[in-house]
Specification:
Blueprint (H helix, E strand, L loop, with lengths): L1 H19 L6 E5 L5 E6 L6 H9 L1 H5 L1 E3 L8 H7 L5 H5 L2 E7 L16 E5 L2 E3 L2 H21 L14 E6 L5 E2 L10 E2 L2 H20 L40 H4 L6 H4 L43 H6 L6 H5 L2
Parallel strand pairs: 5-7
Antiparallel strand pairs: 1-2, 3-4, 4-7, 5-6, 8-9
GO biological process, one term: mismatch repair
GO molecular function: ATP binding; ATP hydrolysis activity; ATP-dependent DNA damage sensor activity; mismatched DNA binding
Protein name: DNA mismatch repair protein S5 domain-containing protein
Length: 327
């Protein structure tokens, strides 16, 4: 069990290098029980990161991703949130690139049930950066809820899935210290807050561009979803002073046809007019049931003496000897 866990970690590290290194072919093989060589993961001598992604995970996975643009801007709200005091030249030295899963649409969600395809590379070195991966996952889930709400679709598993993520971060080497662990996967960054700020701005710009103009998302990707979704109930006020009732829901004209608006519902005939009337004779009034504690319905049951002889002949003969034996 431990051997498989360590093998999975090794494959994950090699996969990160296969995605990040452009123009360098990397292949990983293993030997099965029969001694045959089996390919585990490999990239190609690609000229871009997108081609590496297609070589490792296939074209289907690549089509479900959106590229993080390089022409994003850090909004004043994000800058104020992190309170970064670096100059414009120093911020330009921090570069963010990569890919992230597109928000889900009506065809289905594009996330995964685990974070097995989330990679972060700093200056070309795969590393562990949980603060950035948690930030990217949280922003992606929020924008997923925005996309599903705008399409009037249920949220489904938008709050539990993980996006496919590849972040390629570059900053001056003097600001990075890699000598923290033997595997060099834990880094000490002097510009950690500015780096996280630019990552958030880049992911927000990417997701907002993917969502389109029909959704208005603020810098925290939080929005009052009820402003886009129709109200499930329509409240009507009764008639007062001979005036027509008003509808308090702004979507009443969209979801109520003219035949069922409240002003005409009051003019519809009663349901009792459509029921078949049972004719009754005024000479034979209905007899009320007389109930008593001992036999509440005794007066409604006809006795044998009140029946006509023809009806008595048609009645079957019942043998009550077996019944009387148990009394």
């Amino acid at each position: 069990m431990r051997l498989m866990k360590e093998f999975s970690k090794a494959v994950n590290l090699i996969t990160a290098y296969c995605l990040a290194k452009v123009g360098l072919q990397i292949s990983c093989y293993r030997f099965d029980a029969k001694g045959e060589k089996v390919l585990v993961v490999s990239n190609s001598t690609a000229r871009s990161t997108a081609e590496n992604f297609a070589a490792v995970y296939g074209q289907t996975q690549l089509k479900a991703l959106i590229e993080i643009p390089s022409d994003f801007e850090v909004t004043p709200e994000v800058r104020e949130e992190y309170n970064v005091k670096l100059s414009a030249e120093e911020l330009d030295a921090i570069r963010v690139a990569g890919f992230i899963s597109a928000p889900p649409s009506s065809s289905g969600t594009t996330g995964r049930s685990s974070a097995d395809r989330q990679f972060v590379c700093v200056n070309g070195r795969p590393c562990e950066f949980p603060q950035v991966t948690r930030l990217a996952t949280d922003l992606w889930r929020r924008c997923c809820r925005e996309s599903l709400a705008a399409s009037l679709l249920p949220s489904r598993s938008a709050t539990s899935n993980f996006p496919v993520l590849l972040l390629l971060l570059d900053l001056p080497p003097a600001k990075v210290d890699v000598n923290l662990s033997p595997d060099k996967r834990q880094l000490l960054l002097q510009w950690e807050r500015p780096l996280v700020m630019k990552v958030k701005a880049a992911i927000l710009a990417t997701l907002l561009r993917a969502l389109g103009n029909y959704v208005n998302v603020d810098p925290n990707c939080q929005r009052n979803i009820t402003s886009l979704m129709p109200s499930p109930t329509v409240k009507c006020t009764p008639k007062t002073d001979g005036k027509e009732p008003c509808i308090s829901s702004p979507v009443a004209d969209t979801f109520l046809s003219p035949a069922v608006v409240p002003t005409q519902l009051s003019q519809q005939p009663l349901i009792s007019t459509h029921l078949t009337q049972i004719p009754t004779s005024p000479s034979t009034p209905l007899r009320k049931r007389a109930r008593s504690p001992s036999d509440p319905l005794s007066s409604d049951i006809p006795t044998k003496s009140s029946l006509s002889p023809d009806i008595l002949k048609s009645l079957p003969t019942v043998n009550t000897s077996a019944y009387d034996r148990h009394l």
